[in-house]
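Minutes, project huddle
Topic: does the predicted pose make sense with zinc ion bound?
PN asked that the exact inputs be recorded in the minutes so nobody has to dig through chat later. Recorded below.
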Amino acid sequence: MLPTTATASAPPPPPAAGAATSASSPGEPHDALLLALGYMRLRDLLACARACRALRDAVAGDPLLWRRLTVGPPLSHRITDEALLALTDRAGGRLRSLHLLGCPRVSDDGLLRVVQRNPDVTELFVPRCSGLTADGLVKIIQFLHECKGNLSHVRLHGICKMTNDHLDVIKSLICRSSQQDAQALYYNHRVHEVLNTDDSRPIDVDVCPLCRNVRLVFDCTRKDCREVKDSWTRCRGCFFCVARCETCGRCIDLEELGETGLACSDFLCMDCWLKLPKCSTCNRPYCERHSNLKENLSPSGQFTCQECTAYATSLESLGNGY
Ligand SMILES: [Zn+2]
Ligand SMILES: [Zn+2]
Ligand SMILES: [Zn+2]
Ligand SMILES: [Zn+2]
Ligand SMILES: [Zn+2]
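Predicted holo structure (tokens), as shared on screen:
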């Protein structure tokens, strides 16, 4: 599930529709609905505000609803600096957590204006916001530091041209504890798609020990790798430097890669590869994430991959041409 909650991250309680006994007067929203507003995703909250005047006032008039703002798909591609400023202004200067997940239209200037009005922000998540720059983010984090704010968590992966120097400055400006730094990050495709919600490290990116770029750097889940210190450092690296199993996150060597072909473009270790059902023509499995691509799926689990199906179809149409 994409973390698009506007406020709390807990799932919303069941709606109170049908509970006719209410302390509210007729035509007014039920009290339970007003309570539920605090658990709604941004999109639902905005839809609710359009339902009637009472709800609009309830949504607009409660700054507490806006202290934690998450803008995720599908709103992320539409939100502009002005819209973001209008939304964050609803917190009345008390915004604490701002998660912008892949919002390309938000600029450095726009985000700076938001933090200038909300200097108490403690969480600033801007992964894959392609309109932001490393220089701009340093300036924004510097501003929060000068305001004696408590910015303690940032998520920056996918920000272009982030260098070691940028990262060093950001590290020096963030409130952090050494315990949080020690936490490992394991590869998981979800890291790329949405934020890893279990990750309590202050900064998500690091310098890849292999290519020296600032990226998400994964630790190995393989027990042998973790026990042998040398080998662990060898397979600690970014997505581009170390091939990892899509399912369990452990490193995969070249030999293993050659033996574990997949019908999708991911990689699996031998253990995870062996467990999966294979295409009845080419004997390649799909990873769990792409299992929806199976064609001609039979009740017994037999299937054909898309490539083999396309090949069979093209042969058929060739045959029909003669
Ligand atoms: Zn690397
Ligand atoms: Zn595996
Ligand atoms: Zn490893
Ligand atoms: Zn196949
Ligand atoms: Zn896959």
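Observations noted during the meeting:
- The chain has 14 helices and six strands.
- The radius of gyration is 24 Å.
No decisions taken; revisit at the next huddle.
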